[in-house]
Amino acid sequence: MTHTRRDVFLGLGAVGLLGACANGVGGRGGATIDARVDATLAQLYRDYPATRQLADKSAGLLVMPLVTEAGLGFGGGGGNGALRIGGATVDYYNMVKASGGLQIGVQQYSHVLFFMTDDALQTFRRSGGFAAGAGIAYATPQKGEALAAETTTSLAPVIAVIFGQSGLRVGATLEGVKYTRIIP
InterPro entries under this entry (predicted)? Predict the structure, then answer.
């Protein structure tokens, strides 16, 4: 598929607009992100009760309360969240996502990365910027559907639960996600 200059400029514009969105960093950034993380976890546990068992078995959680994506040919997305260990926030992270391919639309969602081993958590924390990809099991439960911790913990050292989707984005994409530690 060939992309015109218009596609490239629209895609880059979408990434720029996403970067300009209110992101909770600056001023009361840490408190804002923590409040959003608390609300996101409450919704996750309410809508998918079995994820509480997953959290109890995990070494830590990276909670991204709101990820916004937009694309027309090329696209991007991002959001901010917090890494929690033992229920306490230890670091804040920014997520940036780039994509290219046949796509159009905008969507928002929440996601939580469950680090199921201490090694996976330490690898994440030591890295200068963690790129999501191989080694992550994705779970996208539907409302009312059970997510069994016993069956998912054996799949991968990191499990991503994606939920609360809204908006419409159509197409097949090749995506890359990078998480970087931030100071709010």
Answer: Ysc84_actin-binding
Give the whole-angstrom CA distance, residue 136 versus residue 156. 6
In order along its 184 residues, the chain shows pLDDT tens digits of: 454 555 544 444 444 444 434 444 445 689 999 999 999 999 999 998 989 999 999 999 999 999 999 988 888 999 999 999 999 999 999 999 888 877 788 999 899 999 999 999 999 898 876 665 555 666 656 554 545 444 444 567 888 888 888 887 765 555 678 889 998 7
19 sits in the region (left: phi over 0; alpha: psi -120 to 50; else beta) called alpha
Q: Please, are residues 107 and 167 in contact by the beta-carbon 8 Å criterion? A: yes
